[in-house]
């Protein structure tokens, strides 16, 4: 029951209502039972149509009665000639129309109308389209009607540009119409498809296409049209800066397509005789047909994700057969083939080297920036200027603030870092119910910036202390990092994804609120873990560390666990490799 | 033409504590007014109605107050030759009610009351070439039915009986620009549908296919100043949407993106202090549907007076532990 206000009534009114309901119940039950018994007897006559019509008019969600009607109609099809059938179905359309007038959100009525339309000997799709127009003019958010419209459009081949013009009209008369913006997002990529990225040198184009959805490449919009859309959206949010529809749409326009499926990194370690592979998105390496070739010889290896929690992961590892690459005077050539996607990546391990890798970096791929071509980014610059103008008029408008942040990131994530942080601060104040969302988003952007800085500096140290981090992400980008500094943030856990840092030697995470170390799991080179002033309270919290064979130094000062009895001896038993324990 | 924010105002005297006893009495009495006009009108969804009532009773640890024998016999009588189960006697079978029936029988540990193999055949038979599921033989396609199909099979431990890859492909083809999902490819995002699709992806082990940050943003933007959540932009808050949004956020590991204390206040304000039960909004008429989703929402928010609820199947966690079913959640 939706939207039925509870009203107080007197005892006398109650009694009258009760009597009225009793009467209605009798009529209803009689009609229902008559329908059921007729159907049981296999009667498909006019009276049955009458009875079901009577019941469905007041209760269109009674699905079984629609089914009975369809049985009757299908029977009539076999005994009447085409003109009669046409007439019967046209009457049926009038009936569903009257049902829809009374209850425009009934699944049953809409489905039945679609069923009838599809069976009509001479369908009149133009009439159906105008029914949709009328219905949407009464409620432009009725998703049943929108869906029916899409069916009609498909059945009758209405051109995409005509439908786009329809959304132009609706948006023009009322910008605040999420349904229309949504419809646009499905139409534009059909009318103005974005050109696929040129395949990177080591990858052949993928053979199978991903399922179509606006998230994937095949459903992005070409640059020229994107620029026009920016203008339309700007009109919308200048007209009504508090209407969320246009802002949601704008964020989509500013977004990036999902990355092509590829192997973005292959890493090999001589000491550990181990290979790690990073994919551009989570996969299940055990089932995607991964082939490892070492010096021309296919190898039989077992792929495992970095943590048992992940059946799909961007990072997978395998051990090479013992003795295959451990002689430092030998050079080796390694290729990982992703047979399903017809792509591969090579990696050479030279004489005298202990490890090697081959990869596309976040900077190569401009992962964290706009997708526009260089000459068109000036458009973003002017977009930023106008949104900033709006912000001057509406300094506390959260949509405006968030959009400024997104534009700044699309343009120059590092250059605008300071301003971005200030805007996040304001956002958390003006939209405090979503403060945790903004904190996590800000953490993500700070991590992206730190990845960029690290890669420009060509180092393997990832340092992001004192940045109010509340969450960790992009850890697949940190496979090669040997030293991470997360000190003085607000982290509560090192999640399973943390196990992607396969080269990690030193972990600094003092002064957080960490109570869970699930992701410090099977890190083969980890030697030092600094966790001063966190919330580690039980031995069980430290259990994952026992899977890191080289752990020598552990700082737990200022954690609740240090207050428990026998902690030192229990730790010695749990972590026998640790020689330097600070409590 | 500025938009006015649609929301409700919670009155200062609105209920602010959980009235468990009243709700249990309300549900226990609900099934006894079988001669009521409104009750009769809702016969077409009776099986789901029973599932809502029993689940909320179990969450409140009051399941023994319901008539197990009567209900199991009723379900038995609602299974058809094709294997499907109908909302009530005399009605046609449908995936919606097949799932509700299986959920009820899981609560009661009495799946043997029905022919399980036939249920599996029925579900399997409704899968279409493109991977989607029809709700019944009349062919309505909806991602809700994809969820019903895999939830039914997951509870029966028979997921491998359908083409899971194809089913996943279809659901993913319904993903939208905002990261959400609608009824069919091209349909607008809607919190109820998002719940079905995230639940579906959880049960099929495919949550990594979501754009969780984008979807999570859309979902947390459903929270209005009253604390309640709506199901789509520019709509009023509602207890049932509060559940669908909240459960979806839980599934994608982002439940902390909304203000839990404010949502709790809103849900509590939707209680009827006189009759027991929850309404969609403060001051409206109560019903078992919103009563379940009110209590289940409070459970997800961590209320210790109700049992823990599973966000994917909207069933008590202890029941799922008994069956050995632990759907994935993103961390
Ligand atoms: Zn509701």
UniProtKB/TrEMBL annotation, chain A:
Biased composition (Pro residues): 198-214
Biological processes per GO annotation: prenylation
Top-level class of the enzyme under EC nomenclature: transferase
Keyword Phosphoprotein found: yes
SUPFAM superfamilies named among the record's database cross-references: L domain-like, Protein prenylyltransferase, Rab geranylgeranyltransferase alpha-subunit, insert domain
Domain Rab geranylgeranyltransferase alpha subunit insert-domain: 263-362
Region (Disordered): 1-22, 198-218
GO cellular component terms, A-Z: Rab-protein geranylgeranyltransferase complex
Keyword list, A-Z: Leucine-rich repeat, Phosphoprotein, Prenyltransferase, Repeat, Transferase
Enzyme Commission numbers on file: 2.5.1.60
Short name of one Pfam family: PPTA
Catalytic reactions on record: geranylgeranyl diphosphate + L-cysteinyl-[protein] = S-geranylgeranyl-L-cysteinyl-[protein] + diphosphate
Single GO MF annotation: zinc ion binding
The family this protein is said to belong to: Belongs to the protein prenyltransferase subunit alpha family.
Function in brief: Catalyzes the transfer of a geranylgeranyl moiety from geranylgeranyl diphosphate to both cysteines of Rab proteins with the C-terminal sequence -XXCC, -XCXC and -CCXX, such as RAB1A, RAB3A, RAB5A and RAB7A. Catalyzes the transfer of a geranyl-geranyl moiety from geranyl-geranyl pyrophosphate to cysteines occuring in specific C-terminal amino acid sequences.
Name used for this protein in its record: Geranylgeranyl transferase type-2 subunit alpha
Organism: Parambassis ranga
From TrEMBL, chain B:
UniProt keyword Thylakoid present: no
Cofactor descriptive note: Binds 1 zinc ion per subunit.
EC number per UniProt: 2.5.1.60
GO CC terms, sorted: Rab-protein geranylgeranyltransferase complex
Keyword Oxidoreductase tagged: no
InterPro entries in UniProt: PGGT1B-like, Prenyltrans, Ptb1, Terpenoid_cyclase/PrenylTrfase
Listed Pfam families: Prenyltrans (PF00432)
Matches recorded under CDD domains: GGTase-II (cd02894)
Domain of life the protein comes from: Eukaryota
Cofactor list: Zn(2+)
Catalytic activity: geranylgeranyl diphosphate + L-cysteinyl-[protein] = S-geranylgeranyl-L-cysteinyl-[protein] + diphosphate
Keywords: Metal-binding, Phosphoprotein, Prenyltransferase, Repeat, Transferase, Zinc
Domain Prenyltransferase alpha-alpha toroid: 18-315
GO molecular function, one term: metal ion binding
Family stated for the protein in its record: Belongs to the protein prenyltransferase subunit beta family.
Function description: Catalyzes the transfer of a geranylgeranyl moiety from geranylgeranyl diphosphate to both cysteines of Rab proteins with the C-terminal sequence -XXCC, -XCXC and -CCXX, such as RAB1A, RAB3A, RAB5A and RAB7A.
Subunit structure and binding partners: Heterotrimer composed of RABGGTA, RABGGTB and CHM; within this trimer, RABGGTA and RABGGTB form the catalytic component B, while CHM (component A) mediates peptide substrate binding. The Rab GGTase dimer (RGGT) interacts with CHM (component A) prior to Rab protein binding; the association is stabilized by geranylgeranyl pyrophosphate (GGpp). The CHM:RGGT:Rab complex is destabilized by GGpp. Interaction of RABGGTB with prenylated PTP4A2 precludes its association with RABGGTA and inhibits enzyme activity. Interacts with CHODL.
Protein name listed in UniProt: Geranylgeranyl transferase type-2 subunit beta
Gene: rabggtb
